[in-house]
Structure formats: C-alpha cells, structure tokens
Amino acid sequence: MEIVMSRPSVADTAIPQNVNVFYRITALWAMCEAFLGGVLHALHLPGTGLFVGGAAVLCISLLAHHCPSRKAILKATVLVILVKGILSPHTPPGAYLAVFIQGSLGYLLFQAKSYFKLSCLLLGVLTQLQSALQRLVVMLVMFGADLYQVAHGFVNYILKKAGFAEGDYVLYIVIGYIGLHVLMGIFIGWLAGRLPAMLKKQQHKIDLNAYSNTAAEAVTVLPRKKKEPGSGSCLC
C-alpha cells in the first residue's frame, strides 16, 4: 500500500489571505450598507439602525482583528461610503454620517487588541445608541421642538377615547426605543467579540474535512497480481 499525500504550505496560503481579507470584509460591509440599508431606507421600514448598524459592527470588528493597522478601518469606511453613494444614491445624508461615525468609533476603540472583546461590546452599544439618538434628533429638526407635545396629546387622546387613563406614554416609548437599541448593541458586541474564534473553528472543521477527503483519495491500493496460466501446482 502506497500513500501519497500533499498539502499546501502555510507560506503559500497565508500571503493571499492577508492581502485579500481587507477587501473581502470591506466588500461585505459595503454590500450590507448599499443593498440592505438602501432597501430599508427606500421602503421606509423601521429597524435600519438595528440591522445595518449591527452588520457594520461585525465588519469593523473583523477588520480590527485581521488587519494589523487601525488605519484599515478608516480606509474601509471611506470605501464603504463611496460604494454606498454609487449603488444607493437615494440614501439620506444621515446614513453616510452614521457610517462615518461608526468607522471613527472603531478606529478609536480598537487601540489595543488585548481588550478586543471589550472594544467590540463598547462599539456595539455606542453604535446602536448613536443610531437611536440620531433618529430622534432628525425628527426634532424636521418637526420642531413641539413634536413631543403633539405626540403626547395625540396618544392621550387615543387612550382617552379607548377608556384608558392618560399618562406620559410618549416618554415610555422613547425610553423603550433607546433601550431596545442598547440591548441590540450588547448582543451585537458580544457576538462580534466571539465571531473571529467562531469563524476560525468553523474553518478548522472545513480544513479537516477537506484534508480527510484528500487523504482518502490519495490512498492507492496496488491491484493484486493475477496468476499466470500454468504457474500453479498441477496434479498429474
């Protein structure tokens, strides 16, 4: 039995991965911003900051983990803004500002890789808080400072017609809205801190399966020699 196995050396595969990982993560971030964010903005669906901001946190954390320099986060931020402007020009200016703030927060927080998980958690919470507060500020700018009073009067009018007691429910709604973003930020930050290890473990399983399949295909069993006619023993 002869076993012939060949595996690519680490040096042959490490260089292309280090070169391409920045562009792959940046492309993923840009696609999330351009397509997912563009669709949510075009349809005026709620939860844009929850989902698009969460995807941004995951991509920024991967950039911080795989790229040796923090400047890669700023470079990726500029590229994402350019791609977002080309693919979804209908996106409001606040979305571009949000991407810039997210990239700047990532650049500031990921100064030391020894606090990677803590930085991911802070980035997740701050990004979601920025998204929630930015939406509230935009609403105040568009509708004026009397927006709260109008909403308060409208909600109490509906509750009074329905037979419920009046209260400051608008404040509860705002607090709940901000609290939902904070909880989402904690979850995304927790996931971002563990994502590199999860991906590495999954890649290790894929490599083991591929290596097992390659080894099984490389095993060559020599065929048994057939006996020639007349070579065996003969009883006469």
UniProtKB/TrEMBL annotation:
The chain crosses the membrane at residues 21-43, 49-65, 72-89, 136-159, 171-192. It comes from the Bacteria. Keywords: Membrane, Transmembrane, Transmembrane helix. This is Uncharacterized protein. It comes from Pontibacter populi.
